Amino acid sequence: MNILLTGGAGYIGSHTAIELYKAGHSAVVVDNLSNSNPESLRRAGRIVGREIPFVRADVRDREAMDRVFGENRIDAVIHFAGLKAVGESVEKPLEYYENNMNATFVLLEAMRSHGCKNIIFSSSATVYGDPQIIPITEECPKGHCTNPYGQTKSMLEEVLMDVQRADREWNVILLRYFNPIGAHPSGTMGENPNGIPNNLMPYITQTAVGIRKELGVFGNDYDTHDGTGVRDYIHVCDLAAGHVAALKAIERKCGIGIYNLGTGHGYSVLDVVRAFVKVNGVEVPYSIKPRRAGDIATCYCNPAKAKAELGWEAKYGIEEMCRDSWNWQKNNPEGY
Ligand code: NAD
Ligand code: WQD
User: Which residue owns the Cα nearest ligand 2 atom 24?
Assistant: First the structure.
């Protein structure tokens, strides 16, 4: 299939492009580069031995999107494009609602008018809020999202399902990612955050490489085995492979599908720090800080549905995630 990747120059999209080509698909990327660098796609192209077609455009630009659909036969869309920083979304709610909602509306309208009715949407574990069931299954009710970023994901899930209910020819897959970390094993591609990282792994790697002085561990008084927050970290290449598996379900005309993409294992902040130090033989100085507003104690999934219905499961463990994150950071201390 030929797949349109919105936001495909970003962290997850660029790794997914590789998995698509490896599986015999091809891709066209549309990205406005608001949070990415086209070098990611050049490097992905080197890995797959093909130049990955890239259009620099904003998904909210209807004319640009019509051109993309007019000039390419698109069989399905993987919709990564969006703003994703939780804290920034609290400070700039309007920017987050405007970008994430309008980009999806324009995309869906363009898809409809060009007869493309297959979409995979990047959703997030954040839609569960403070989850009522651990490990989280897809049946767990969606929770209250404490930030505008999470609200956009939750609302867009509803929009996409309503579109499918109104026209059963649509196939809509909502992939709820847990905590993607890691990088391509080549060490040439990885996560490239702007400024001070919000997420744990890039903060660890930047501390290990000397860009940051020490990691702040946000709280050690949670109800977890060591008091620090527990999450379901998943290697970005496993996550990317999950999209290829979801495309097979689209080929089988799945209607609506909702899947957790995680490993099913929960690791605390200190578990991750220890694994990183052990695997890579580097120091990660840290100190305990107060809890971060909006954080929950524990979040990990039951990935059984994705295994049963998509035939997908994560292959990589925490040590490989730590190894590949470090390999990327140490080879590319300034990012792309
Ligand atoms: P990323 O920021 O690296 O990639 C998103 C890409 O979208 C960027 O390249 C950015 O330039 C582009 N973009 C944003 N708005 C755009 C617009 N209006 N038009 C065109 N391009 C636009 O983020 P990522 O980590 O690769 O995340 C990809 C998707 O997965 C996002 O939707 C994110 O919300 C979701 N997600 C990410 C995580 C995570 O922890 N990384 C977890 C759950 C869900
Ligand atoms: C993980 C753990 C922190 C940084 C976020 C979004 C979620 C999803 C994934 C998009 C927590 C602790 C972190 C640091 C720390 N993104 N931590 N020091 O919060 O689980 O999820 O990214 O959809 O929506 O909320 O990920 O990596 O920020 O934090 O101690 O410097 O690490 O408190 O326990 P989180 P994270």
Answer: 126
Share of the chain above pLDDT 90, in %: 99
**Residue 199 Cα: closest atom of ligand 1:** 40
Give pLDDT tens digits for 313-335: 999 999 999 999 999 999 999 99
- List b or e across 20-45, with b for residues whose CB sees 16 or more CB atoms inside 10 angstroms: bbeeebbbbbbbbeebbbbbbbbbbb
Q: Which of 314, 126, 22, 47 is nearest to 3 (CA)?
A: 22
- Indicate whether residue 216 lines ligand 2 (CB < 6 A): yes
Over residues 79-130, the pLDDT tens digits come to 999 999 999 999 999 999 999 999 999 999 999 999 999 999 999 999 999 9
Per the listing, tokens 């709610």 go with: 93
Active site residue 149: yes
Q: Name the residue with tokens 């660029």.
A: 14
- For residue 292 and ligand 2, the question of a CB distance below 6 A is answered with yes
Q: Tokens 């970003």 map to which residue?
A: 10
